[in-house]
Design goal:
- With 140 residues, this protein is an alpha/beta fold.
- The chain contains 5 helices and 4 strands; from the N terminus they run E-H-E-H-E-H-E-H-H.
- The protein has a 4-stranded parallel beta sheet, with helices on both faces.
- Helix 1 (18-27) packs across helix 4 (113-130).
- It starts with 8 loop residues before the first strand and ends with a helix.
- 40% of the residues are buried.
């Protein structure tokens, strides 16, 4: 169906692990939905809460932040700092009436290309189940 709704998902991914995992998935030709647009940051510890909120305001149906596993952060504690912020974001999304399943944080290492594919599939299916972001209706 040509006019079938396709979710717009933004992935903010760490340079050292998740980006490398996504690159490995591409090199291994692991299939996953092409619904995700990635932005590479040096560390998820750099991700500000406003980045996520701005993504939703600008039309994202879902946002994913993906970084190194705990204990593997190139910057030692960046992923711990990010994880603390992500709990606050989920709480904020619930408080403004947006389903917090539209936002997710995952941990994918450079050697986990297959896991990257599974995460993308799962995130896409969750967002498809939820439908278009209600924020888009407010912007019309």
């Amino acid at each position: 169906m040509a006019d079938e709704w396709k979710p717009q998902i933004l992935a903010i991914i760490c340079n050292w692990c998740s980006y490398a995992g996504a690159y490995l998935a591409g090199g291994a030709r692991i299939q996953y939905p092409p619904t995700v647009r990635a932005i590479r940051v040096m560390c998820t510890g750099r991700v500000d809460m406003l980045f996520i909120l701005k993504a939703f305001v600008e039309g994202a149906d879902g946002v994913l932040v993906s970084g190194c596993h705990f204990g593997d952060c190139h910057y030692l504690e960046g992923n711990y700092k990010a994880a603390k912020r992500m709990f606050m974001i989920k709480n904020l999304l619930r408080n403004i009436g947006l389903d917090d399943r539209r936002f997710r944080m995952t941990f994918v290492s450079a050697s986990e290309g297959a896991k990257w594919g599974m995460v993308m599939e799962d995130v896409t299916n969750t967002i498809k189940e939820l439908g278009p972001s209600p924020i888009k209706e407010f912007k019309k």
